[in-house]
């Protein structure tokens, strides 16, 4: 898998969703979704794009197990956090509050794991992170 291409494409999708949400909120005058909009742009667009740049700039081994865990936990975590946040705050289906809360918490936890793995990779694969 080309990690850079994957992260750039995912980032592009989140950028479109975030921009659309911002446009919709500006046009409608309501800011009820501003926290969700901000998280989609920060963890969905900016973090995913930053990860793409990381994999492009530094020669992190493609067979790294940490890298595989990082890619998939980032993808699943961002989706889980943002969708879970949307479910939690908008409550589109009545009677699902417990599910919505768990979805939100699990998504956020998986994303936290992704960032922990990223921090570990910065040290484990530190020899590949250089200005040379």
TrEMBL record:
InterPro entries: Cyt_c_oxase-like_su1_sf (IPR036927). The chain crosses the membrane at residues 7-26, 38-57, 69-89, 101-124. It comes from the Bacteria. The keyword Transmembrane helix applies. Keywords: Membrane, Transmembrane, Transmembrane helix. SUPFAM superfamilies: Cytochrome c oxidase subunit I-like. This is Uncharacterized protein. It comes from Halobacillus yeomjeoni.
């Amino acid at each position: 898998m080309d990690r850079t291409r994957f992260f750039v494409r995912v980032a592009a999708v989140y950028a479109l969703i975030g921009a659309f949400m911002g446009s919709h909120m500006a046009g409608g005058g309501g800011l009820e979704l501003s926290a969700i909009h901000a998280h989609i742009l920060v963890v969905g667009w900016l973090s995913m794009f930053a990860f793409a740049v990381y994999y492009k700039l530094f020669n992190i081994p493609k067979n790294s197990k940490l890298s595989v865990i990082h890619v998939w936990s980032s993808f699943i975590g961002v989706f889980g956090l943002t969708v879970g946040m949307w479910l939690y705050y908008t409550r589109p289906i009545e009677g699902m509050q417990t599910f919505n809360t768990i979805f939100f918490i699990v998504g956020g936890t998986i994303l936290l794991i992704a960032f922990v793995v990223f921090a570990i990779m910065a040290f484990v694969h530190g020899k590949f992170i250089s200005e040379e």
